Amino acid sequence: MLSTERLVLRRWRPEDLGPFAEMCADPEVMRWIGNGGVRTRGECANAIAAFERAWDDRGFGLFATELQASGRFIGFVGLSIPAFLPEILPSVEIGWRLAANQWRKGLATEGARAVIDFGFGRIGLTRIVSIHQVGNGASERIMEKLGMRFERATVDPSCSRPVRVWEITRSDWEQREPRATQPTAL
Ligand SMILES: CC(C)(COP(=O)(O)OP(=O)(O)OC[C@H]1O[C@@H](n2cnc3c(N)ncnc32)[C@H](O)[C@@H]1OP(=O)(O)O)[C@@H](O)C(=O)NCCC(=O)NCCS
Questions:
Q1: What pTM does this model have?
Q2: What ranges in 93-166 are assigned the alpha helix state H?
């Protein structure tokens, strides 16, 4: 479990299925994921089971994400293996998906910063990638804000959509700017 100023990132629970399925039935949320199709409740149940298996097998995965203040489930942020893009394997991807009524408050970036610290600091990864479809400006902006670098443009063979791959290495992360405002020497 990780916590940030406004979020709790944790393993999945059975009661996450309802709000997760609601989010994945929203065409606005799913627009830039795979072929852009929405998911059924059954597909979401299978997805949650797969997220939990990944946690058990690898020791990292997608965190169910809730608001610290209310405990409300709002989506996920976390790490996965981008098997849909074989040309960049082996690699570990950071990704995010939040309910539309939570967008544009900086929550995905806040969660992603904690996940990058987890990936490099706790899991010992040497490199993390992130992939967005061309047109998904919000995800691209998050990658920039995280200090990631553009790595390549390619096509997702599973849906033939153009994608852009970004990366951050462990040494980039070690040399990152301190986040809190530092006192300036006079
Ligand atoms: C992508 C997503 C997680 C972003 O969540 P969020 O909490 O709104 O993100 P943040 O507020 O932390 O940051 C978004 C940044 O993108 C900017 N942004 C938002 N929409 C944008 C757009 N259409 N084009 C360009 N920039 C955009 C925001 O202004 C913000 O940047 P800023 O802090 O410099 O102003 C959310 O939109 C989402 O769940 N989308 C659907 C699922 C998805 O596409 N997942 C990613 C697949 S790669």
A1: 0.95
A2: 107-117, 137-145
| Per-residue model confidence as pLDDT tens digits over 45-72 | 999 999 999 999 999 999 999 999 999 9
- The answer to whether residue 40 scores a pLDDT higher than 70 is yes
Is residue 94 within 8 Å of 119, Cβ to Cβ?
yes
Reading the block at residue 107, the tokens are: 């929550």
Strand ranges across the sheet with 73-80? 2-3, 7-10, 62-67, 73-80, 93-98, 127-133, 161-169, 149-156
Task: Tell which one of 30, 102, 103 to mutate to probe ligand 1, the residue whose CB is within 8 A of the most ligand atoms.
Answer: 103
Report the residue count for the chain: 186
Q: Is the CB of 136 under 6 A from ligand 1?
A: yes
Asked if 70 and 102 count as a contact pair (C-beta separation under 8 A), the reply is: no
Confirm if 163 and 85 have CB atoms less than 8 A apart.
Answer: yes
Give the position of tokens 């849909």. 84
